[in-house]
Design goal:
Elements (H helix, E strand, L loop, with lengths): L11 H33 L2 H19 L1 H11 L6 H15 L5 H20 L2 E3 L2 E3 L1 H10 L3 H35 L5 H8 L4 H34 L28 H4 L4 H11 L5 H6 L13 E4 L6 E4 L6 H15 L19 H12 L5 H6 L7 H35 L5 H13 L16 H5 L5 H20 L14 H12 L7 H9 L6 H6 L4
Antiparallel strand pairs: 1-2, 3-4
Helix pairs in contact: 1-2, 1-4, 2-5, 3-4, 5-7, 6-7, 7-8, 9-16, 11-13, 13-14, 14-19, 16-17, 16-19
């Protein structure tokens, strides 16, 4: 097989190595520029930065869409490559090129629509009367207000972004399905799972099992939540509606207990706690903090994310910190992504494989560290005196249990909605959304409301077919934590303490980070924990069987 005009006969392994080398020379600079442009657009919200982001994404897409390069990697993918590392790289590159084998104009149209939607989310602010509200202000009202009418008005305003992006989202779904069908897939959802080394039917089977595992435990905690919320608000349980559940999507546990965890975080330096915690595990993050953008400002994305710009150590976090438990957990989460990046994946791992094994794995690591915000022992060990540790832990334990169950049910909605949306985008999507909310979250839909509430969740627009990985990541987090507790800390998972334990960082670096993407997600799970991904540890964490 001739490669790029080479005439001397080469072995298949040599051809694979040469293809990878030339791919990296061609694509690595573009991938760096794309990462930087994505960061700048989300930090500033400026038209020119979003235009630059779109321009570079188009350039990157065009490079991957090149038929000559695709044919070469396809031939190599179908060949008998003997070196496992070369074979793994060619497999990953084949999937990367395959996604872009559609009409260049279609790729540009998809990029433009996605860009427009993302920009709309970044600049949108909920407006009630004459007041514009940040995301944190919306959450504060939903958490603290006892006025149902005010809560409803703020909740509806927060959903208003759905109407802004609805038409663009529907067009984007149509374009994505068009691209998927051109590549031989039934729809975009099936295609994206395939490209991420997952099988839709097996993922759905796992989620069916999780549904059975969590349905009754969730029903019980939901009854407790409803009773306490209704009591606090002075309304009947039957009158509870989505705006009463504090989080705009009921993906987080409401603060229904007497002890308010936010009180402890109102007086601490969240960034210092993060620095000290990760440094104590020999996973320092000072350089990440120095590159990051961490506080609210106009035009900036109101959410939080971590980005590895160059797979060479330039790792950054975008956040909007306010002093409360939500943002303590969020920063532990995002910095968990940061330590599972090219900061700690060895340079000896080839560039193509120098990233997390899978998105579910990095989400799992982030969740593994995030949970410590709900531990008085963790705060004490970090040098923070909690006024009443027993009450804090009583509340925190219930909130952590509630969080696992609530988030599990919310992920059911997201997975099944996206699957249904791409299978039949012409159906009544808002009805589908609320049908699933009622089925899996057991929350009543607002009567008479006809609005594209599904479109107000940014992931539906900008991170398609992604959300199920959060739940699979939670399974991964529980499984890794249990293995670490058992083999390294020699204690039970509920007693495991990571503070100033360098052996925790060593375990994470050796068993989770070091392989990069040389292993698939299930291979990595088995390498780190001794078992393939399963729900046993997760069930133990919320008190299930």
């Amino acid at each position: 097989m001739a490669l790029l005009g080479m005439h001397d006969p080469l072995t298949i392994d040599e051809e694979a190595a040469l293809f990878i080398k030339r791919h990296e020379e061609r694509l690595r600079p573009l991938e760096y520029k794309a990462g930087l442009a994505w960061w700048n657009a989300n930090v500033t919200g400026k038209d020119e930065d979003f235009a630059k982001k779109e321009e570079i994404q188009n350039e990157l897409d065009a490079a991957l869409a090149d038929r000559n390069w695709f044919n070469q990697v396809k031939n190599l993918h179908e060949s008998e490559i003997t070196d496992p590392l070369l074979r793994r790289q060619i497999h990953i590159l084949y999937l990367q090129y395959l996604e872009k084998q559609v009409d260049p104009e279609l790729l540009k149209a998809m990029s433009a629509k996605a860009n427009a939607v993302e920009k709309a989310f970044n600049v949108y602010r909920a407006k009630v009367g004459a007041e514009e509200m940040t995301d944190s202000q919306v959450r504060k009202v939903l958490k603290e207000s006892s006025n149902s009418e005010q809560r409803k008005a703020v909740w509806e305003a927060s959903k208003g972004v759905g109407a802004v992006v609805e038409n663009d989202l529907k067009e984007l779904v149509r374009l994505r399905n068009q691209a998927a069908r051109k590549l031989g897939f039934a729809d975009y959802h099936k295609m994206m799972l395939h490209l991420n080394e997952q099988d839709q039917a097996k993922v759905l089977q796992l989620f069916d099992e999780l549904d059975q595992l969590t349905r009754e435990p969730f029903r019980k905690i939901k009854e407790e939540i409803d009773q306490k919320l209704a009591g606090k608000l002075g309304i009947a349980v039957a009158d509870l509606r989505p705006w009463h559940y504090q989080d705009p999507f009921f993906q987080e546990p409401p603060a229904i207990y007497d002890t308010n965890l936010d009180v402890e975080y109102a007086k601490v330096d969240i960034l210092k706690l993060c620095r000290d915690f990760y440094k104590g595990m020999d996973l320092p993050i000072d350089d990440v903090i120095a590159r990051s953008d961490l506080y609210e400002k106009p035009g900036k994305s109101p959410h939080a994310f971590c980005i590895d710009v160059d797979r060479d150590g330039d790792v950054r976090v975008l956040a909007n910190i306010v002093p409360n438990e939500y943002w303590m957990a969020t920063m532990l989460h995002e910095l968990g992504h940061a330590v599972y990046s090219s900061k700690n994946i060895p340079q000896s791992v080839p560039y193509v494989l120098r990233s997390e094994a899978h998105i579910l794995c990095t989400e799992g690591v982030a969740m593994q560290f995030e949970k410590f915000s709900k531990s008085s022992a963790w705060l004490k060990n970090m040098g923070v005196q909690v006024a009443d540790p027993a009450k804090f832990d009583e509340t925190a334990k219930k909130m952590l249990r509630n969080q696992l169950l609530i988030f599990s049910r919310w992920c059911q909605v997201m997975l099944r909605f996206e699957k249904g949306m791409y299978e039949n985008p012409d159906q009544d999507l808002n009805k589908l959304w609320w049908d699933l909310v009622e089925e899996y979250q057991m929350m009543r839909r607002p009567e008479g409301r006809s609005a594209p509430d599904y479109a107000s969740k940014i992931h539906v627009c900008s991170a398609p077919a992604y959300y199920h990985n959060y739940m699979m990541g939670q399974l991964f987090a529980s499984q890794v934590h249990h293995a670490l507790s058992r083999t390294v800390l020699k204690t039970t998972p509920d007693q495991a303490d990571y503070v100033n334990r360098k052996e925790v960082g060593q375990f994470m670096k050796e068993k989770v980070f070091a392989p990069g993407r040389t292993l698939s997600w299930n291979q990595l799970t088995k390498f780190a924990t001794g078992e393939e991904l399963n729900a046993k540890a997760f069930a133990a964490d919320f008190g299930g069987k």
